Amino acid sequence: MPGISRRKLFGLGAAGVAAAGAGTLAVRSLPDEAATATPSGSASDPVPFYGEHQAGIVTPAQDRLHFVAFDVTTKDRAELVDLLQEWTAAAARMTQGHDAGTFGAVGGVPEAPPDDTGEALGLPASGLTLTIGFGPSLFDGRFGLADRKPAALAELPKFPGEALLPEISGGDLCVQACAHDPQVAVHAIRNLARIGFGKVSVRYSQLGFGRTSSTSRAQATPRNLMGFKDGTANLKLEDTGMLRDHLWVAEEDGASWMTGGSYLVTRKIRMHIETWDRTSLTEQEAIFGRSKGEGAALGMAKEFDEPDFARKGPDGQPLIAAVAHVKLAHPSSHGGARLLRRGYNFVDGSDGLGRLDAGLFFIAYQRDPHRQFVPVQLALARQDVLNEYIKHVSSGLFAIPPGVRDAGDYWGRTLFS
What we know:
EC 1.11.1.-, peroxidase activity, peroxidase, metal-binding, about 20% helix, globular
């Protein structure tokens, strides 16, 4: 199709392509109204793509994750903006259960590569959300963004005991794909990587299963691979006031382009589960400060009962030790600071020594990581007895821009315009 760039082709709706004289449209092409469809109660239904905030943050946490960090390889700012526009158009389509490109997996010219890789043909939207973020390294001067770097995006400090691997940490860009079907999540990341060929390269990616946090009061608190419920004090989408105070960036925070956005911290935490599995139940519960069955704080009856850190046991000592995980992570220990967590379990095979390479891919959103995540993690790194059984091996920090308002908007417009 001479005269129409690939970027513009991706952005055209069905009517626009027809007017341009295009051939057969893809079976799964995106109707104009689909991008604003409202989800029903089914896990197969689409989540709206457009809005004040990006989907995939307060969206009720889906069952599967494919997270990817990219390095930007182009040095051309205009090429990067073009890519973000292409990605936005593809994301708007895929989150509604459609192909990544206008002609789809089978509707284009047979002699040319398809506009979609095809492994999601016939599958529903499955609650897919795609959430983009910008890492500190994107603001290094290559694209004229150095003076737009938010103070909250300053690199995280080195925490005691961490053993970070540079090759699976950091990144210029990240995309978080969450869905109820792993193939749908993988398809979305695969197609964004395909579209970005020559402009970005994959730095690392992580598959996750079995969400470890609930982001809505309609969801039960899940369990991590240690068998415990964690993050009971997590922010929920129903907590409108607390979301305003602890999650969403405001104009007065100093980077106007981030208004309505948030900040993401990721940590890949490997669990020494073979050692954990040989630890007594009593010790496991003392380490977490929770009962393993109900998930209640020790001394309490129900999961959501507020912990009583002053309560004493028969020996006169606090039922919940000062170094218990629940005590060190609790908002009351950090001036009320809260996080919105939506992490996932992972099992990445074995380490060659008969041990599973398994653990938690920690994901937390917040208004300012240096006032929220950092003090919590410093306390945990210094005192948490759980550290005997875990090791932090990767880390990421990303500025999550506000949502895409409509079809004329794109990921990162507020930063680049």
